[in-house]
Amino acid sequence: MDVKGKKVSVIGGGKSGLAAAELLRREGAKVLLSELGAFGEEDAERLREMQISFEQKGHSEAVYDADFCVISPGIPPYAAVVTTMQARGIPLFSEIEIASRFCKARIVGITGTDGKTTTSTLVHRICAEDGLRRGYRAYSVGNIGVPFSSRVLDMESGDIAVVELSSYQLERSPTFRPDVAVITNITPDHLDRYEGDLGRYAAAKFMIYANQGAEDTLIYNEDDVLLREHFLDGADRFPFRIIPFGMEPAAGGVPDPRIVLLDGDTLVVRTLNGDAPVVMTSDFLKNSFRGRHNVSNVLAAVAVANALGIDNDVVRLVLREFRGVEHRQEFVMTINGADWVNDSKATNINAMRQALEALPGTAVLIAGGRDKGNDYASIAGLVRKKISLLIALGESQGKIVSDFQGVVPVKAAASLEDAVLFASDAARPGQTVLFSPGCASFDMFKNFEDRGMQFKQCVRQLQPW
């Protein structure tokens, strides 16, 4: 992508906006970085050093004097600056799109409602281990917290970029083409952004394969009903190779399309010469990494390794050492016989459901935050079975209290600190205290990482009996 001398506006001064601005400036573009809020002094000084023009506390008319614009993923499509750009015919791109145009490495793109961070982390570690043996480097970038733009110029041909992708990042990525694309699942999420339309949300996810061709691979979860129906007879409709994975057997009389699957307790890859065993579930389901959803995540990672030609012994080594992802069903500590688990990354109902299903017994549940159109009735039966007390907090507190009254005992908390204290009083030896909000974090916290860190800090301040 030749951007030398081009005028580019970057809207949004978060991590991805800053990284995109730096990348474009290094490549010779004239960049204006525009932010509604304010920059910290460290970021402002960095921008001055890079000779990047910037403005804060609002978008001026200057942002429209641009050959194209890079929009940060958190800016909704109905924002005034976006609609004005469109009305003036200024092309709009995501940071992912811009970075991909400079990328020399092979790209593994991973999206889905849930499981994409765990799957991305696993795939990156598998690739990194394989790279040590075969002489290439693996990078973990994207929605996982490291902007693609911040590392792309370090990447060489033969390296692998494992790119975690949200629907927001895929929305304005018209030429993005991963060598291997993964869709872990699609369940209702972000419906506030997509006007309650699951189809629109799914369409954004499907952008991951829009530009793939015959040399590329698409991996999807055959257990997910929406994906199963979408890719039905896919070999006849799509130009790329398709690798379905799944745990559930095909319905009676229907040919089983799965290539990577669970056979009893063994993950296998189906080949022309029969099923090749990869690893036993007992080798990796332990501690903070448990539950059927994590078997599904591992199946996805095995499918990627298969697509990349990585030996099964590398996969086994990584899986046997893997201990899960921070803020995703993360074991914090045991206090007075009760285990405390940080699942702050559960920002939707399906993620909360997965955490509840993985519980070894009953639990005290702390939930709530900024609601994204949640249907709490869909998990009422599971909550009744698993939860002895539900503690509600955040903007969705009233809705949670209302929806679960009569299902389980519910208590409202004014703060996370209060919620932790209430849970400590209620939890009994052998139980779990599960912090699985099922909501976005932006009502009370910077992001889900900040929320999870504050939860862990509150737990560590508790006094044992």
Structural write-up:
The protein is globular, with a radius of gyration of 23 Å. The strands form three sheets. A nine-stranded mixed β-sheet has the order 7-8-6-9-10-11-12-13-14, covered by helices on one side. A six-stranded mixed β-sheet has the order 15-16-20-17-18-19, with helices on both faces. Strands 3-2-1-4-5 form a five-stranded parallel β-sheet. It has 17 helices and 20 strands. It folds into three domains: 87 residues, Rossmann fold (3-Layer(aba) Sandwich); 222 residues, UDP-N-acetylmuramoyl-L-alanine:D-glutamate ligase; 131 residues, Protein-Tyrosine Phosphatase, Chain A.
Task: Provide the descriptors you would attach to this structure in a database record.
6-stranded mixed beta sheet; 3 domains; Protein-Tyrosine Phosphatase, Chain A; 17 helices; Rossmann fold; about 475 residues; alpha/beta; 9-stranded mixed beta sheet
